[in-house]
Amino acid sequence: MNIVILGAGLMGRLLACALARAGHTLNVYDAAAADSRRAAAFAAAAMLAPLAESAVAEDTVVRMGQYGLTRWPALIAELDAPVFFQQQGTLVVWHRQDAAEAQRFGQLLATTAKRLPSLPTQKTLDAAGLNQLEPGLGAHFAQGLYLPGEGQLDNHQLMDAMLAQLQRLQVTLHWNTSRSPGDFAPGQSGQPDWVLDCRGLGAQPQWPGLRGVRGEIITLHAPNVTLSRPTRLIHPRYPIYIAPKQDGYFLVGATEIESDDTSPMSVRSALELLSAAYTVDSGFGEARIVELVAQCRPTLPDNLPAVRRLGARCLQVNGLYRHGYLIAPAMLDVVLQLMQGERSALADEFELSCPPDVVGSTSVDHGGCKSALQESEARQSVLPDVREPA
Which is it for strands 172-174 and 143-147: parallel, antiparallel or unpaired? Predict the structure, then answer.
C-alpha cells in the first residue's frame, strides 16, 4: 500500500518503521527540520514504569505500560543501531520530613495492585537494602521502595535509530512540510491508500480538545555518580526523577505545568531540579549541565490516549501526554490492527473501545477525508476510544 504519515515524532516513526519493514510505500511529512530536537519525543526521560505511574495514572495507561515493557525489547531489536534499554527496576526515596507523603504514595500503589494483580509487588527497603541496590544511597536515606521489573530506554538513541532505518528503507521524508488530513483523499485515484495523523499538538486545528502540558528536563554529565537505575524522590510539591543513561549522563525532571508555553526553562525550575538531584547524590554538585529542555506534551481532556477515525482509511493518533514511551508500543499495535479490520482486540483488552453510536454524525469539513468519514459513519465502525470530531 501507499501510506502517508503526518508527523515524525515517536508514534510517526514507530508506525513508519513497522509499515516500511512490511514492504509498504511511505511518505512522511513533518513541519520541523530533519535535525530538529523540538518534538515532545525528545523532551522525555523515557522511563517505562507502569507501577510507579499507577499512583497517578488510569488503569488503562498502567496496563498499556505493562504491555509496552514486553514489546520494547523486540521493537529495539528490529532496528539497525543499538539503543540503550534497561530493566532493573525503579527506586523511590524520600527525606524524613516527607515520610507522610511517601506513605500516601505507597498506599496508592498498593490500592492499584489490588485492582491489577499482574503488577509486581513493591518492596520496602531500609538503609542497608538501599545500599545493596545503589551503594552510598543508604547514607542519605533511611527508607525507600523498590519497584521491580520497571525499565527505561534512551529516547534520543531510539529516535535517531528509527530515522536511520527509515532512510535505509528508502522512506520518503518531507521535512519542513506541514500537511493535514484534509490535504488527502485516501482510497481515491492518485491518492494514498491510508493517512495516519501523528502530529501531536500540530493536530489542534482538527482536534481542538488537544492541549499542551509543559514538561522540563535537565541533562547532566556526572561520571562520578554511580546511580544505575531510575530513582524517584518524593516531594509534597513536585516528585523528582533521575534517570541514568549511558556514559555518565543523567536526565533530571519533574515539573508538569498546565501550559502550552514552550519558552526556555525558568531559573526556579532549574534550581528545584538541581537542588533535589544534589540531595540524592552530592556527586551531582560537580556535574556539568549539558542541556535544559522545556516542551509541551499533547494531552486530551481526560489525559488518556486516543485513536479516532476521520474516515475509512484515515486515523488520528494522539494524546499520549506524559506517558509516550510507556504506552507507545500498545498504541502502535492497536493502530496496526485497525488497519487490518474494523476492530482491534488490543483496544478491547485495554478497554479503549466505545459503542458504534459514539462516531455519530458531524458537519465538520475535513477536506479530502470528508467522503471517507461519511463512509465510515455509515458502516458504524467500532474503534478504540473514538472521539467525535469537534
Answer: unpaired
Orientation angle between helical segments 324-338 and 10-21, nearest 10 degrees: 40
> What is the CATH classification number for the domain harbouring 95?
3.30.9.10
Quickly state the pLDDT bin for 352 (edges 50, 70, 90): confident
Count of the separate structural domains present in the chain: 2
Task: Give the start-end residues of each E strand in the chain.
Answer: 2-6, 25-29, 47-48, 85-86, 90-93, 123-126, 143-147, 151-153, 172-174, 194-197, 211-221, 231-233, 240-244, 249-257, 288-299, 306-311, 314-318
Residue 357 scores a pLDDT above 50: no
Domain final residue, candidates 299, 328, 360: 299
CB neighbours of residue 22 within 10 Å: 10
Q: Is the domain of 232 the same as that of 200?
A: no
Does 125 score more than 60 pLDDT? yes
Inter-residue contact 325 to 153 (CB < 8 Å)? yes
24-46 pLDDT per residue, tens? 999 999 999 999 988 899 999 99
d(CA 62, CA 68): 10
170 and 142, same domain (yes or no): no
**Which of 255, 288, 284 lies closest to 43 in space, CA to CA?**
255
- The overall pTM is greater than 0.85: yes
Q: Look-up: residue for cell 505493562?
A: 66
**DSSP letters for 33-61:** -TT---SGGGS---EE-HHHHTTTS-HHH
